[in-house]
């Protein structure tokens, strides 16, 4: 058994424990679940001199290869994670935005409704 499976399992377990993925303000160093349909995971951020470092770990399922994405956000910047769906259907998206000293996590579908 590779080390990857326990890491993905722990990541997905944290995603389940940390609650709703689509709305709310994030807290530094606290996991926030992300649900992109067939892909899920967690994101957290740390406050650093150059900005808020957002780290997201995503996987298709417990057996999928995890993908880690890191981005440093200044005020007014955002990062979007998305998974495609069938032709003609909008992708599933989660947007993480830094607004001054607040980091917001939301489903971009709720921004257009």
UniProtKB/TrEMBL annotation:
Keywords, alphabetical: Signal
Signal peptide positions (record): 1-23
UniProt keyword Signal present: yes
Keyword Signal among record annotations: yes
Protein name: DUF5666 domain-containing protein
Lineage: Bacteria, Pseudomonadati, Pseudomonadota, Alphaproteobacteria, Hyphomicrobiales
């Amino acid at each position: 058994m590779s080390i990857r499976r326990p890491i993905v399992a722990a990541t997905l377990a944290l995603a389940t424990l940390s609650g709703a993925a689509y709305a709310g303000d994030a807290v530094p160093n606290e996991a926030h679940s992300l649900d992109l349909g067939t892909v899920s995971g967690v994101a957290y951020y740390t406050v650093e001199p150059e900005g808020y470092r957002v780290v997201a770990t995503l996987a298709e399922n417990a057996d999928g290869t995890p993908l880690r994405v890191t981005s440093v956000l200044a005020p007014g910047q955002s990062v979007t994670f998305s998974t495609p769906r069938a032709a003609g259907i909008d992708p599933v998206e989660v947007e993480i935005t830094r607004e001054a000293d607040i980091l917001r996590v939301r489903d971009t579908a709720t921004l257009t409704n």
